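Bit of a strange request maybe. I'm writing a small parser for structure token strings and I need a real example to test against, not something I typed by hand. Could someone generate the tokens for this chain?
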Amino acid sequence: MFGFGRKKKNEDAEVQETAVEQAQAEINDDPDMRADDTAAPTAVAEERTEFDRANGPYDTEEKSGTDSYLDLGSLLIKPHPEVALRLEVEDNTQNVIAVTLQKDKAVLQVQAFAAPKSRGIWDEIRSEIAESVRAQGGNIEEVDGSLGKELKSQIPVTTPDGRKGARVATFVGVDGPRWFLRGVFTGTAHADASARAEMEKIFKTMVVHRGEDPMPPRDLLPLSMPAQAQPEAATPQNADLEMPERGPEIAEVR
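Reply from user aminoacidic:
Good idea to test on real output. This should exercise your parser:
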């Protein structure tokens, strides 16, 4: 089952997206960076980390036997039983901008971005996410996880009835050949080891199709609806999950 919904950003997603947008604004102001995605960065992290992708996520040049995968343009995703897949659509442009996978209350949202040929960008993105979280009065912790360096965040929020709470998320990132894949684990996928492991397996089976067209670093790689999608009636979303709201229709892969 998968569907697509109107994009309503939650605060967890806005943290990472704000960092990417700020970085993209800097790139847009620099004609050299837009003209050549191999240009040297203006600031380089002192220590580089690299995750071994031998067991995924994969590049299209590295993975065969994907005929049964859902083709979402820049992402090929293996179908998994009992896992709902939703495409997040931006209202203004009607472009698909993210993929959300959910099993019970475990949620994983993914996006793929362009990256330079010569280096990865996860080290820089982590610093920007951390800065953004702290600017919102939140807490951020960098840990060594099964996908390399990860960020665990808590952002204070006030519920509609006036109670104080926090939005929690785990940010992960994997650098590939000229691409960067970002994942955000929320719900039980953030706090429960078993739920996290199950969603992480899905993350590792993903295949990124970068394409040959030149793109500025950090531009979102284009996503699209798969050919198998057929619209059907809307399904209410579980109110306990702090994720983007489901839109007026969903689609099912048959």
